[in-house]
Request: fold
Amino acid sequence: MDDVRWRATVPAVRIAGRGVAALVDALDADDVALSDATDLWQAFDRIERLASNAKTLLAARVEEAGAWKRAGARSAADHLAKLGGTTAGAARRSLETSKHVAGLHEVAAAARGGVLSPAQLEAIATAAAADPAAEGRLVALSGTTNITELREEALRTRAAADVDRDATHRRIHESRHVRTYTDAEGAWNLHARGPAEQGAAFEAKLAPLVDEMFANAQVRGSRELREAYVFDAIVALGGRDEAPNGRSRTPKPRFLALLHVDAEALVRGETEGDERCEIPGVGPIPVRIARDLLGDAILKLVITKGVDVVNVVHLGRGPTAAQRIALLWSKPKCANVACSSMYVQLDHRIPWAETKHTRLQELDPLCPYDHDLKTNEGWSLVEGTGRRAFVGPGDPRHPRNKPPP
Reply:
């Protein structure tokens, strides 16, 4: 009886939809108790996940049905995009995910249970299709990390399963493109796709301009998101040859884009097992490309068997160049486990005024926002090392709230 009752037929889903529609129609956000607002949002989010995942599971079947041909669409993705009021690119990704999920039982179960968001489902399905043995690990990881880091791990999984990374790199290069469009609000949008090492080189040239604009804004008392200065820097690179003072606006190569590569892989010419060859924050690249990059003055190579700076004690307030490079290699992201920013400032875990030295083991990278919370609002990383929770002064895990011995 239950199997018949809960069978996903068109009438049954439409009845369920009417129920959800009635709930939304009766929703008055201003009347929701503040204590219930988050729980109610999460309840609707679960409904959204389930409905979106169901659409993804059905997408391949819609293509197979062929209704898109009768509708005169160029492809099933274009037909789905029109029906769903989304872009053809988003519809294509949903269709690809649908085909991947068909052979991934753990991923499909997590999707049906609403455990995975649409973004998580897309990232995991693409990686698990390349390495089916990784699906359980990636599903479990989705519950303990954010979407940015999940995507990075999925990217590593795909790269590790790639039997011909050079061929993949060539395909990426051949399909390189830049697309611009104006959205519904009238804003100009830019989307670019190409080889990772070329993107890293572009970001390396961009970073000094971003830092300069950020510093100038602080002097003026202005403060905006870093992303705003990145946009301004792109415009400056593409539209101006000179600074307002008439001097050449040539970025100085002082920004370090780190190349993380295992020494054995560098010598061998390819990675094996869990070895890495990647630009942190950008993605995996073939070892051949890593070798080519060694001559680039902007990139600094840090090999996993390089100089040991762990035990170096520097008496200055700021870290040495070697310490900074080692820390950016081993901890390229904000130490706040809920943050994935790679634009970080180095913070002394124990105030320098107390220790009068700088040790690698006593430094934590924090994004400017979290660094400001720590300095001015009393927030702190919980005790420990590595990436961990970042809590407010009232949290029982805050180091100041630790009970006396």
